[in-house]
Amino acid sequence: MAHDSVPSNIVTVDLGSNSFHMIEATVYDRDVRIIDRIRERVQLAAGLDGNDTLSSESIQRGIECLERFGQKTKTMPPESVRAVATHTLRRAKNARNFLDAAEAALGHSIDVISGAEEARLIYLGVATAVADDSFKRLVIDIGGGSTECILGEFAEPIRVDSLQMGCVVYTQRFFGDGNITKTGFKQAEIAAALELQSIEAWYRNRGWDSCMGGSGTILACDDILRENGLSDHGITIDGLKKLRKIVISQGSIKRLSISGLKPERASVLPGGLAILIAIFESFGIDHMTVSPGALREGVLQDLVGRMHHEDIRDRTTQRMAERYRVDMEQAARVERTALTFLNQMGSSWNLDGNEHRQFLTWAARLHETGLALSYSGYHKHGAYLIANSDMPGFSKRDQGILAAIIGGHRRKPTSAWMQEVPPSRMESVLRKCLVFRLAVLLNRSRQSAPVVPWTLTVFGNDLHLSCPKQWLTNHPLTKVDLEREASVLKEHGFSLHVE
């Protein structure tokens, strides 16, 4: 936890499809001051084959980069570092193989985030990096494998879209032989326009007060336009079309040499430029200003929020509970019991960190969401909703863990959702699930009666649950439920002793 009077060092890492970035900052009295930036061109997306499998060469490039980053991050506490991965690792079938080695190299876990979460963090990065008080703001970010479009009001996004097009992917697809032609540009722009077709009417109808862009392609285009006098201020469609003409005239990616164009950006400029032109034309954008902030700055701000108890995941679970009309009084009873148990036995099962408390709190809020669909199998319905909803602030892994706890809170604890949990987290997730099962079971009456002083202790796989004398005799339904629970747990290698 950060204290306002003590400066803290934090680091964010962005595993993009084109480049990996690391930012180090100090946080003092809620003031964030960036003290170091590192960027390495890894081109992870270029290593995807036709079967969406990462090549060994691209994996090696990524690991070597993260080993260098790890020189800084390995000695830092977990709460001070957050690493996120985007489109390529969402798509790669062998992403788990890469991530296991990558996390070892970095010394910290890596969150593969959804397209919607990537867009939210981009908007947060842009909104905090510029002095812009526009009521309604359109933000565009063209990455190596995906493009994010976000419409927001002040600091809050109101719609986010992640599209399957990026500068690396489109350059490979339409300029893969290294030649730059009018035909290639036309095909790339048509393909991008088709991707935008389903959302362009909504954005045009809502309108915006200002349009901003971030990340490599847009920053590069802005630099080139200014350097060559193709635009007086910001990016315009006229300036982009003039730039397209210059790029085509050079005929080859290898020969691309334009004032303001960095050598490492030349290899992916054609695809990114085609996408940007299509966005301008599809949305009817007149002018775009450039923001220095993007995904990694958004991750930085999000991490600071978590450190100061402003975790958007709390708001997300609260809103989701409201949407599915969860009985919040029952949720509070289950949460209170689960956290009491965690206080009693958490250290014995290595569940004494704040992360474990958070997951049990979120599970308590959301474990009855499935009742909105049907009582029959509601734990499965709830797990499905959690695993497949857009949940701002959550990584795909965190959603998978939460779904596993909710899917396993009744019937068999080793639910199908457990298969989605990374092997390194399996033991702690199963243990949280067992604690949560007991908390739900002991509150089955849904009554706001005086809290029963239950005590839970564990020794290895033996769980000992004790309560006041005669209580179980006076509550025969709970006694039967606990006997059934003991039988279920025994089948999975655990012993429950009720005393």
Roughly what percent helix? 40-55%
Distance between the termini: 38 Å
Strand proportion, as a percent range, falls in 15-25%
Q: Specify the biggest β-sheet.
A: 5 strands, mixed
Cα radius of gyration in angstroms: 26 Å
The CATH architecture assignment of the largest domain turns out to be 2-Layer Sandwich
Count of beta strands: 13
Structurally, how many domains make up the residues? 3
The SS-based structural class is alpha/beta
CATH class of the largest domain: Alpha Beta
User: What is the CATH superfamily classification of the largest domain?
Assistant: Exopolyphosphatase. Domain 2
Low-confidence stretches: 1-5
Strand order of the largest sheet: 3-2-1-4-5
Count up the helices: 19
Calculate the mean pLDDT score and round it.
91
Shape: elongated
Question: Could you name the CATH topology of the largest domain?
Answer: Nucleotidyltransferase, domain 5
